[in-house]
Specification:
Layout lengths: L1 H12 L4 E9 L3 H12 L4 E4 L7 H5 L19 H4 L27 H14 L4 E2 L4 E8 L7 E7 L4 E9 L5 E2 L11 E2 L14 E5 L3 H10 L5 E6 L6 H4 L11 H7 L5 E4 L5 E5 L5 E5 L18 H4 L11 E4 L3 E2 L36 E3 L17 H20 L5 E5 L3 H11 L1 H5 L4 E7 L4 E9 L6 H5 L7 E7 L31 E7 L5 H5 L12 E4 L11 H16 L8 H10 L5 H7 L9 H9 L20 H11 L17
Parallel strand pairs: 1-2, 1-6, 2-3, 6-16, 8-14, 9-10, 9-14, 10-11
Antiparallel strand pairs: 4-5, 5-6, 7-15, 12-13, 17-19, 18-19, 18-20, 20-21, 21-22
Helix pairs in contact: 2-10
């Protein structure tokens, strides 16, 4: 009957007018507002549909106990805004410095109400085109060869208003609560509705189903007033400091682990929730049993006629009755509004709560449909930060750049540098880039080698579609490329790993490949990897086997600027890959090379020969003399008048009087390489 009524409603609106936009965004949460910002800055035709009266409606309710677990680090000791975003997990990307989250809260773990205010201001101050109180209830396709992707997306809202879009961006997040059905599940309270007042749990015994941050958040709230709390879940607890995955249990919520391991009545159990059953006695107490005990039995006959586990095993762990059972099992994506024509299918295994998408964040079922934000986390689930604001703000920007190239012919942003700036460019990015840092192993900087004299630098490209780089970016890679990515050590992260063991860190450059903590890795390919090579890459490798690879040794301060430990090994690696000399030289050395070598180093060809060089000064001259790079002609005793063309006169004139300016260098590598 429902299908028949729905079909009739489609027929009724088939002739209705459609409001057209190039881009339709469903959801005005953080990712929806983020992509709206990029679309607006690019001058595109778009609209954002939001079912609530304000943006960020998820944060108006969740987390229930109002404390976010995304850090708000206001002080880093640095003024570099890009670097500071590495430790700001709440701000969205924009040009407006008023829209940094630190202006909305001073708490390290902010209150969720601050996020609601922030998102409201983000939408209003930037004048984003959000259509509130509009719930999209159905999405389907209309085939049309003239459309961008061979079809249009047709959307219908709760008032039967219809919309037509060339590209659909889904930013609804995961908001449908996960529910496990078993005998007696009607007695279970959901995280979304359970009381958050500790007084309501005073003197009670509580069982919590689940083992994520929402479960531990709930336990933390009532830990001091309950008789005891038991927590049961299918998998063992995963600690975020061991897995290096921010979605696992955070230290701020793990008080129950203390009370469990320090013998204070609370406890954790492992078991499949679908095997459980709950029986309620006459006093209202809830007894845990197993499903197979209830087979072929009438549960309404009363608890006395039902066999409980403790009847056969008198020390059964959950034999004590509970006053309340609370479900805290997280959320899943809402697939209900999408017509079969879109082929929006759930993922497999532990990714089934997310829709299936490609590494480019495009749906596997419908071209032109992209999934953003938390719902796109299947690309890097349990690996990186793509399910959280500090991760998907960068993946959303990457999707926008892909769309700009595909539909508007705007290539991926890039900068061309002389080859002499190769080392400096890499060092600069690995020390300040926030996208590489947060989306480690997922987003990478790409260096395209143009020829022997220049390179092209692309920032934060999804490595999962590296084989499609030329098509997706509009850039060519005919002469090979470098891929700069951040990685943890291969065997350092895991639920069963001891990440605090003695000698866990590596400090010497020759052992950099054994680094455990997050560190930069540079892959060199003589040609662009193929799709087949991407598919056959080694397990847990973000990229196929390269022609050469270099690890920059981990650093306790995450500051990779040490001349000997970081810069020199990197420069020599680059020189070996390119068969060239990437050192910087003083003018005197270039002058000498011009007479003694058949081929000048790139720095001399691009600087000295073109009458460019380092800006001369008395301090630079003294430094060069002390380093043994120049003779100290000031100590030479000349008798009589100095010839106008003497060496000292020309040298002094070069270093003091007629300095020729040059583009500033970020780092100066010692020209005299030991």
């Amino acid at each position: 009957l429902g299908l028949a009524l729905y079909a009739s409603s489609l027929c009724a609106v088939s002739g209705a007018a459609f409001l057209y936009h190039d881009y339709c965004v469903i959801g005005a949460g953080p990712s929806g507002l983020q992509v709206a910002y990029f679309l607006q800055r690019a001058g595109r035709d778009y609209v954002v549909f939001e079912r609530s009266h304000a943006p960020g409606s998820f944060f108006a309710l969740y987390p229930r106990h109002r404390k976010l677990i995304s850090i708000n680090k206001r002080y880093t000791g640095k003024s570099n805004s890009e670097f500071n975003l590495r430790h700001d997990w709440n701000s969205l990307l924009s040009h407006d410095h008023r829209l940094l989250f630190q202006r909305y809260s001073s708490d390290f773990f902010p209150n969720a109400d601050a996020m609601v205010r922030y998102l409201e201001d983000f939408a209003s101050l930037l004048k984003l085109r959000v259509q509130y109180n509009t719930a999209i209830i159905h999405v389907t396709l209309e085939r049309d060869r003239q459309a961008w992707n061979g079809h249009y997306f047709l959307l219908t809202d709760q008032d039967r208003q219809n919309y037509k879009c060339s590209s659909l961006l889904v930013a609804t997040g995961t908001w449908v609560p996960n529910v496990v059905n078993f005998p007696g599940s009607e007695y279970v309270e959901g995280y979304e509705t359970v009381s958050i007042s500790p007084e309501d749990f005073a003197g009670q015994t509580v069982l919590i189903l689940g083992r994520g941050n929402s479960a531990f958040e709930t336990a933390e709230n009532i830990l001091g007033v309950t008789n005891f709390i038991h927590m049961v879940s299918r998998s063992r607890v995963r600690l975020s400091w061991a897995t290096h995955y921010v979605g696992d249990l955070r230290a701020i919520n793990n008080g129950l682990l203390d009370t469990y391991q320090l013998k204070s009545l609370d406890g954790l159990l492992e078991g499949d929730l679908e095997d459980l059953a709950i029986v309620k006695d006459k006093k209202g107490k809830l007894h845990i049993t197993l499903r197979f005990y209830l087979e072929n039995r009438n549960t309404s006959a009363g608890i006395d006629s039902i066999t409980l586990p403790q009847d056969e095993l008198d020390n059964f762990a959950t034999r004590a009755p509970y006053d309340r059972v609370i479900r805290c099992l997280g959320w899943k994506f809402d697939f209900s509004i999408y017509n079969r024509s879109l082929r929006m299918m759930p993922g497999k295994g532990n990714k089934k709560k997310y829709p299936q998408i490609k590494p480019s964040y495009e749906s596997r079922g419908a071209r032109g449909l992209f999934v953003l934000g938390t719902a796109s986390h299947s690309v890097d689930f349990r690996k990186s930060a793509g399910g959280f604001i500090h991760g998907f703000r960068y993946t959303t920007r990457a999707v926008h750049r892909l769309l700009e190239n595909r539909h508007h012919g705007v290539p991926w942003p890039s900068t061309v540098y002389p080859i002499t700036q190769l080392t400096n460019s890499i060092i600069k990015r690995v020390n300040e880039a926030s996208g590489l840092y947060q989306m480690f192993s997922v987003l990478a900087d790409i260096i395209l080698l143009r020829d022997a004299t220049a390179f092209e630098y692309l920032e934060e490209y999804p490595v999962g579609v590296l084989a499609e780089l030329e098509m997706q970016t509009g850039r060519k890679a005919p002469n090979g490329l470098f891929v700069i990515i951040m990685e943890y050590g291969r065997n350092f992260s895991g639920a069963d790993k001891d990440v605090f063991y003695y000698n866990r860190a590596v400090g010497e450059a020759q052992h950099a490949w054994q680094s455990n903590f997050l560190h930069p890795v540079i892959y060199y390919y003589k040609r662009l990897p193929t799709e087949r090579e991407m598919r056959l890459r080694p397990p847990d490798w973000p990229l196929p086997r390269p022609d050469a690879v270099h690890h920059i040794v981990e650093d306790f301060l995450t500051d990779w600027t040490a001349p000997n430990a970081h810069i020199l090994p990197l420069r020599r690696f680059l020189e070996n890959c390119l068969s060239t000399d990437l050192r910087n030289f003083f003018a005197e050395s270039c002058f000498l090379f011009a007479f003694t070598r058949q081929k000048l180093p790139p720095f001399c060809r691009q600087g000295y020969v073109r009458m460019q060089g380092l800006v001369g000064s008395e301090g630079l001259r003294r430094h060069a003399v002390e380093a043994g790079l120049l003779e100290d002609y000031t100590l030479t005793d000349f008798s009589g008048d100095r010839p106008p063309d003497s060496h000292e006169g020309s040298q002094g004139q070069l270093l003091r009087d007629h300095a020729i300016p040059v583009r500033p260098l970020q780092h100066l590598v010692n020209a005299k390489d030991e």
